Amino acid sequence: TFKHLMCMEYSTLAIQIESMKDFLAGPDHLFDILESSLPRIAEIRKNYSDAVVLPSASQLPPASGAPGVPTADIGGRLAKIKKVGWLLKGLKHSLGKEDPRHHETPQANLSPAEARWFSLSRLDGATVTTAGNNGVAYRKRDRELAERLLKETWALQKEIAERFDDLRDTYRAAQPELVSRESWKKIFE
After folding, report:
1. What number of other Cβ atoms are within 10 A of residue 167's Cβ?
2. How far is CA 62 from CA 56, 69, 100, 104, 187, in A?
3. Greatest alpha-carbon span in the chain
4. CA distance 17 to 3
5. Quick one: CA dihedral 151, 53, 40, 25, positive or negative?
6. pLDDT tens, 79-136?
7. What are the CB-based long-range contacts (under 8 Å, 24+) for 71-75?
8. Measured between alpha carbons, how far is residue 9 from residues 15, 49, 52, 64 in Å?
9. Is Transferase a UniProt keyword of this protein (predicted)?
10. Is the dihedral of CA 154, 114, 96, 89 positive or negative?
């Protein structure tokens, strides 16, 4: 969760929130939502810039620069110690208000290998090339959105923890129905 927030992957958190809600609704409703889940998730993703793929970073103004932001992996024998410092810098930056200029002009254009939490957590806006190299996503830091998603995630995680024993029993009792060929046959007919 924190890593997704630091990487400005808000759509990922929104999808995780939906999956927790579906889990809490219980196994009886799983088959009912199978057909509608993919369109529902696609609709949710449209609301987050990190899920919108642009053909190229050239469709945006040139990157303004991000001095002091590491783009290479923090490796070596002292990697864990170095990452503590970058974590503190990233958290400090994340707690401040984002600069809206970087929602129009990215600070950096990053490859998937460069788009790590210790880089993105220090930026307010950056393009990240998709893993399939078919475009870029423009990730824009939004402190209020991050806070809202984090609070909702924590509330759902708390509810799952509180109801876990009952949920486990409910899902175990539903297992024969969930894995039966007859149930799945209805879906694919």
Report:
1. 16
2. 11, 17, 16, 10, 48
3. 59
4. 15
5. negative
6. 777 778 888 888 898 888 999 999 999 999 999 988 988 889 999 999 999 988 899 9
7. 71/108, 71/110, 71/114, 71/119, 72/114, 73/113, 73/116, 74/118
8. 10, 9, 11, 21
9. yes
10. positive
- The per-residue pLDDT for range 154-177, each reduced to its tens digit, is 999 999 999 999 999 999 999 999
Query: For the chain, which residues make up each domain, given as ranges?
Result: 1-51+142-189, 59-141
DSSP 84-106: HHHHHHHHHHHHSPP-GGGGTS-
pLDDT of residue 77: 63
What share of the chain has pLDDT > 90, as a percent? 63
Rounded Cα distance, 49 and 163, in Å: 34
